[in-house]
């Protein structure tokens, strides 16, 4: 690998000049990336932060320096990242601060017809005709010291990102799509600031829709407890108790260890949590009828779903032909289901507008779908 120039920041003295630079400069565009580790933990662990301003690359060790002043300074600038979902999730947790704007080059590439999940290596190859080495992609970024090959790999994640961004930015502007791509990036970034409602965790359990309201009340108690345990103990959620185990508990509601053992839960779950799970089932059983969650009605179970979703897909294809935008950018199946769920609600005015009827999508679909609330 050719020599890669970067400043490695591992002390407060090394960080100080970067902080002065970021705080004194007018808002500029920065390429940003994170390296992290997520194995059996609930939260991803930040191992390295990379920044490139177009002239200099900085690698900051978050295990060795106080990061709060840096996040404050970075928030004064515009950020560019690639496939930013996990990066922003980490940044939101450790700082709660994003840039003045946040642009995802994966989103921008999708607006240009490169698919919705273009990886960084392919993105750089496509835009800059540069083939990057993937050899350090499975590095333990919490181990110290980091090897020079690891640091160079990390630096290139931002050094090439900025020129590639500038290239697709111009392409998007030429096609009149940059503002929409920026808006879409902002929408996705905003999702990372939403606070997870642990009372809603039961809805994420596989096959929860098969349970009746009383069983859902038990599942709600169990799933809320599991989410709290995972967050407080920093454990991957299924390493507390598996979702299938929670479903079985809510479905059959054992009251004794003997009944619990018949459900076939993993021995470790029984040993560590058996008595607690029985207490949680009993707690859920004490939920008042008026407080039962509503039965989960899947959108696919509506009588006209199959016919209507096919008609809606034809609408998306027509809008794609008219606008020149790819179908997978215009509307995912999840967005179509969201629209139908809204369309079939008894009280649409009380519901949040579906994505097809908001933002840059609204004028594209305005003449093709029902919009009256």
UniProtKB/TrEMBL annotation:
EC number: 3.1.13.5
One GO cellular component term noted in the UniProt record for this chain: cytoplasm
Subcellular location: Cytoplasm
InterPro entries the record matches: 3'-5'_exonuclease_dom, HRDC-like_sf, HRDC_dom, HRDC_dom_sf, RNase_D, RNase_D-like, RNAseD_HRDC_C, RNaseH-like_sf
Residue ranges of domain HRDC in the record: 212-291
Cofactor(s) this protein requires: a divalent metal cation
Keyword Nuclease appears in the UniProt entry: yes
One GO MF term attached to the UniProt entry: nucleotide binding
Catalytic reactions of this protein: Exonucleolytic cleavage that removes extra residues from the 3'-terminus of tRNA to produce 5'-mononucleotides
UniProt keyword annotations, A-Z: Cytoplasm, Exonuclease, Hydrolase, Nuclease, tRNA processing
Gene Ontology biological process terms from the UniProt entry: tRNA 3'-end processing
Function: Exonuclease involved in the 3' processing of various precursor tRNAs. Initiates hydrolysis at the 3'-terminus of an RNA molecule and releases 5'-mononucleotides.
Entry's family note: Belongs to the RNase D family.
PANTHER family recorded: RIBONUCLEASE D
Name this protein carries in UniProt: Ribonuclease D
Species annotation: Agarivorans albus MKT 106
């Amino acid at each position: 690998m050719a020599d890669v120039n970067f400043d490695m920041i591992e002390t407060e003295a090394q960080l100080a000049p970067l902080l002065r630079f970021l705080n004194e400069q007018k808002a500029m565009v920065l390429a940003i990336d994170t390296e992290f580790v997520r194995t059996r933990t609930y939260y991803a662990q930040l191992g390295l932060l990379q920044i490139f301003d177009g002239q200099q690359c900085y690698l900051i060790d978050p295990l060795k320096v106080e990061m709060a002043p840096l996040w404050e300074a970075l928030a004064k600038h515009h950020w560019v990242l690639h496939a930013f979902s996990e990066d922003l999730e980490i940044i939101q947790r450790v700082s709660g601060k994003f840039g003045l704007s946040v642009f995802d080059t994966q989103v921008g590439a999708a607006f240009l017809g490169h698919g919705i999940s273009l990886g960084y290596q392919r993105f750089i190859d496509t835009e800059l005709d540069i083939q990057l080495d993937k050899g350090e992609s499975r590095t333990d970024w919490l181990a110290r010291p980091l090897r020079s090959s690891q640091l160079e790999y990390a630096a290139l994640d931002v050094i090439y990102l900025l020129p590639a961004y500038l290239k697709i930015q111009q392409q998007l502007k030429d096609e009149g799509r940059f503002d929409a791509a920026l808006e879409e990036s902002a929408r996705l970034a905003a999702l990372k600031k939403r606070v997870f409602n642990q009372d809603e965790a039961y809805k994420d359990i596989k096959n929860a829709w098969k349970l009746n309201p009383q069983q859902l009340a038990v599942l709600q108690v169990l799933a809320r407890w599991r989410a709290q345990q995972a967050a407080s103990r920093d454990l991957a959620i299924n390493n507390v108790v598996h979702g299938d185990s929670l479903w079985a508990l809510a479905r059959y509601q054992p009251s004794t260890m003997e009944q619990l053992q018949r459900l076939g839960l993993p021995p470790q779950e029984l040993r560590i949590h058996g008595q607690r799970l029985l207490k949680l089932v009993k707690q859920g059983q004490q939920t008042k009828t008026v407080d039962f969650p509503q039965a989960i009605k899947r959108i696919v179970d509506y009588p006209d779903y199959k016919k209507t979703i096919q008609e809606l897909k034809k609408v998306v294809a027509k809008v794609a032909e008219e606008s020149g935008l790819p179908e997978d950018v215009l509307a995912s199946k999840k967005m179509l289901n969201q629209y139908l769920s809204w369309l079939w609600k008894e009280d649409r005015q009380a519901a949040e507008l579906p994505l097809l009827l908001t933002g840059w999508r609204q004028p594209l679909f305005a003449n093709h779908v029902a919009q009256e609330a």
